[in-house]
Each structure stands twice: as C-alpha cells, then as structure tokens.
Design a protein that fits this description.
The chain is an alpha/beta fold and 519 residues long. The protein has three domains: 9-195, Rossmann fold (3-Layer(aba) Sandwich), CATH 3.40.50; 207-392, Rossmann fold (3-Layer(aba) Sandwich); 405-506, GMP Synthetase, Chain A, domain 3, CATH 3.30.300.10. Helix content is 30%, strand content 23%. The chain has a nine-stranded mixed beta sheet, with helices on both faces. The protein has a five-stranded parallel beta sheet with strand order 14-13-12-15-16, sandwiched between helices. Strands 17, 18, 19 and 20 form a four-stranded mixed beta sheet that branches.
C-alpha cells in the first residue's frame, strides 16, 4: 500500500548503497518528506512540479567502467537542486566532463578530516576550518568539471566537496547520513532550506488522519484480516485500521508457540479489553513445530513460517464474507533487508516473514500502512493512537519469533529453554532501568553444546547467547556496554535457573558487519 504524503518532497535516487535509507530518515527528521526511487523510475517521471530537490546516493558501481548506473542529464536542466553523495558526486563529475580515477592512493575508508577551501551555502555553519567525516570509497574526482568549484578537501581526496552554484548542483565524497560523520545533518539542513528552499511540512503525528483516510478509501466496505502479534508494528497497524473501518476489521493472533514467555496472553487481554478490538485466537503451535521439524536453514525457516501464516489467514478469511485484505505491520527496514525495495543493487540480507517470506500467489490483497516508516516514526504514531507504553516502547521482536533465535533445529524442549533464559534477561533489564536505554535485547540458543562442571558433575548442555544493541532505526547498530556486575549476575541467574544451559556468552558485534538478529 503506497501513499503519497506531501505535495513537496525530495527524491533520493538509490544507486545501491546500504545506507540509502538513512538519507531518507535524515531528511524526514528535518521535517521534509523524502521518497526513494531507482534510476529507472526516475526516467519515467513526467511531472516535476512537487519535486524540490534530488539526492543521488552512494553505491557499489564505479563510473570508471564503460557501463555504469546513471541519470538523465536533463534533470540537471530542471532548475531543481541536486546533491550527490559519494558515487553521486562521482557521477555528477563524470556527466559534466570531470575525471575520476581509482587507485590505492585515493581510497578512503573510515574517518577522515575535511578542510575548508572556499565558502558555500552547503557548508554554512558546518565547515569553519576542519571537520571529521566518514568515508567509504576508492574512486575519486581528480579533475573538476567546467564551471564547478572545489569547496573542501581531505588528505587523500582533493575534491571532496564540489559545487556549481549557478545550476545548484553539489557533491560530497563523504557520507553525511551516517552518525560517524560529525554533525552531518547540517549538510542536509543547508541543502534543504538554503538551497532547495523547501518548507517543513512533514510531521509524523499529522499523518494519522491521512493514513486513516487512505485506508478507508481503499478498503471501502470490504473486510480486513489483520495479523496481530502484540509487537509495536502490528499493534499500530491494527489501531490505525480500526480507526478507519472499525467493525470490518478482524484481528487474528496466531499462537505459533514461538513467542516469549507469557507474552501472547498479555497482548490478547490488552487488545480485547482495553481497545475492544475484534480479536480471534488461533492455536497453531503444533502445526508450526511439525513443519519446522529438522529445518535448520534460516531462510527456509522464514519461508515456512511466512507460508503458514498466510495459509492460516486465508483459511480464516473463508469464514467471513467480503474479506479481501490482509493487513500487516511491515516497516521500511523490513523491505530493504528482504529485497531491494527500489530494485537497485542493494543486496538482499534476509527474508522477513511478512515480505520475502510470503508466497508469490495469495488470495488476499496486502494492506501495509506502515511500509514507508521507520520504527521510531511508528512509535510516534503509536503514541498518538494511545497505544500503551508497554507495547509502544517494546523492543523489536521478529515475526518468526524464537524460530530464528534458536539457531539450528527447533524443538519443544529448546523453545522452553530459550523462553526461560530470555525471560530472565529481559526482566533483569527492566528491573535495572536499562531496558529503555537499549534498542533491542534478546537471548538466543546456539546450535552447539559444551562441557561444563555443575555440582562436581560433568554437564554437556546448550550455549545461551545474549545480544543487546543501541540504534536509531535498526539499519545500523552498536552493542550495548553492560557493567561487568550486570553480566555476571545475568550469567549466574540463567545457569542456576534454566536447566539445559551451562554457558552464557555476550555478542559484541555491531551492525554492520552483523545483523541484529542471528538468522
């Protein structure tokens, strides 16, 4: 379900960067609606009236090849400001007659220092003399195109910021969208408000009425079945749709047997009693467990779970007249990790059960009102809808549940072990006041056993892995640094109280290179 939110917007042309979505997020944070499109989609645009700026993203391609991803040069004649980032800068330089070379001397990965050469609207209040920026490139512009100026440089890249002020074309070699770049948001501020002269009109809370209206217009008098898990995303989707169509919404909570301890019953009571939603419970734990028997491949797990969900909902749909839609709480990061939502070269990371895990043919039409939103934006919507804090600020929980936190084969015994360990971990986070400081935390079971000594006896039991990360949007993440005494306490509690675990480890890997979930 695609919505057009604002008349004025900035288009981000995606050339396959893994952080393109962060550009969209930074623009929205500044109160401007942004939309990501592919180079092919750009060619099809006929009406440029609502477009107030273009941003060309980074990407894995190189303009030093004979064939490379590009944009029509005609867009530069539309008098619409353009900002190129990394590959986007190199593409601008190439199209306007500059020279780009690839060499070990010019490559920069990680932190670099940017030095001012000339003043520019793009660097106002950003670059006085020197600034720390984040680089990720091996190609560099070595000769300026005609009528362009050099604004700033680094030690290895002499043409790090360039501009054609008359045509309002700008390029930066570094990545202002990532948090590693010092105050990178100021670059976007300057581009939006000084160069594009766009006004702040994008506000998440104000989208509630528009979303409800769009849902109402699309569904009309038909019925919608909503997959309600009790997580933030599906809960907000359900409340939104309920506002739009009320009695024509049927919420279905499927007990897969893969939820956290006691979470299923708690969520059901909240939605049934507090929000008075039409909720039906379906216990399918035996079905899911039998279908997942001896399945250890994570992609197969996700697809099996996704297919089972759809079959259950389609079967339930037959019990209702005029039921044509399946509603899900799919988010922007779900889409980009399952496949490139824009058709660019961005590599597929994993299938989310509600995106890449869905069967190609379904009898129900999908309705996904949150598909263009980040998690923090969804929480703002949730708050405006009156969603209780216990759900609205709950850590993200994957659709396949504990199925992808049990690495390897899934058994009833392993589910029980993990539920107990995870419950101890999360409960201690809440008690210590650390839960709200962490983006996502969970326990997982690894597919190996190790030898231990407990009560002077040899044990051969499971390894429990703990994971806790900080993040702004789930696209990048760093591990949370716990005080040593907290880790000691958790390890002791899990081993002493959960039969089947004799070793606890803590994951200290960031994203990238890892994903937040293990599978």
């Amino acid at each position: 379900m695609q919505f057009q939110y604002e008349k004025e917007k900035v288009l981000i042309v995606d050339f396959g960067s893994q952080v393109t979505k962060l550009i969209a997020r930074r623009i929205r944070e500044l109160g401007v609606f942004s939309e990501i499109i592919t180079p092919k989609e750009l060619i099809k645009i006929k009406d440029y009236h609502s477009i107030k700026g273009f941003i060309l993203s980074g990407g894995p391609s190189t303009v030093t090849n004979s064939r490379f991803q590009s944009v029509p040069k005609a867009i530069f004649e539309k008098k619409i400001p353009v900002l190129g980032i990394c590959y986007g800068l190199q593409l601008i330089a190439k199209l306007f007659g500059g020279k780009i070379k690839s060499s070990k001397k010019r490559r920069e990965f990680g932190r670099a220092f940017l030095f001012k050469k000339k003043s520019s609207l793009l660097t106002k209040k950003y670059l006085i003399t020197k600034r720390s920026v984040w680089m990720s490139h091996q190609d560099a512009v070595v000769k300026l195109p005609k009528n362009f100026k050099s604004i700033a440089s680094t030690q290895n890249s002499k043409l790090t910021i360039i501009e054609h002020s008359k045509k309002k074309i700008y390029g930066v070699q570094f990545h202002p969208e990532v948090t590693h770049t010092d105050n990178g948001k100021q670059i976007f501020k300057n581009f939006l408000f000084l160069i594009c002269k766009i006004k702040k009109k994008w506000n998440i809370s104000s989208q509630k009425k528009k979303l409800i209206k769009k849902i109402k217009n699309r569904v009309k008098k038909d019925k919608v079945i909503c997959a309600l898990s009790g997580g933030v995303d599906s809960s907000v989707a359900a409340l939104l749709i309920n506002k739009a169509i009320k009695k024509n919404l049927i919420c279905v909570m499927v007990d897969t047997g893969l939820m956290r301890k006691n979470e299923f019953n708690y969520s059901y009571k909240i939605f049934k009693k507090k929000y008075r939603l039409n909720v039906k419970l379906i216990n399918a734990s035996s079905l899911f467990l039998s279908k997942l028997k001896n399945i250890s491949n994570p992609e197969k797990k996700r697809k099996i779970i996704g297919n089972l969900f759809i079959k259950i909902f389609e079967k339930e749909a037959k019990n209702h007249k005029n039921l044509k839609f399946l509603a899900q709480g799919t988010l922007y990061p779900d889409v980009i990790e399952s496949r490139s939502s824009t058709g660019s070269k961005t590599s597929k990371i994993k299938s989310h059960h509600n995106v890449g895990g869905l069967p190609k043919r379904m009898n129900l039409k999908l309705i996904e009102p949150l598909k263009d939103f980040f998690k923090d934006e969804v929480r703002i919507l949730g708050k405006s809808l009156g969603l209780v804090n216990q759900i609205n600020y709950k850590h993200p929980f994957p659709g396949p549940g504990l199925g992808i936190r049990i690495v390897g084969n899934i058994t009833k015994e392993r589910i029980k072990i993990l539920q107990e360990a995870d419950n101890i971990f999360i409960s201690e986070l809440v008690k210590s006041g650390l839960y709200s400081k962490i983006w996502q935390a969970y326990a997982a079971l690894l597919p190996i056993k190790t030898v231990g000594v407990m009560g002077d006896s040899r044990t051969y039991e499971n390894i429990c892995l703990l994971r806790a990360v900080t993040s702004e949007d789930g696209m990048t993440a760093d591990y949370f640094s716990f005080p040593k005494n907290f880790i000691d306490n958790i390890s002791n509690k899990i081993i002493n109280n959960v039969k089947g675990i004799n070793r606890v480890v803590y994951d200290i890997t960031s994203k990238p290179p890892s994903t937040i979930e293990l599978e």
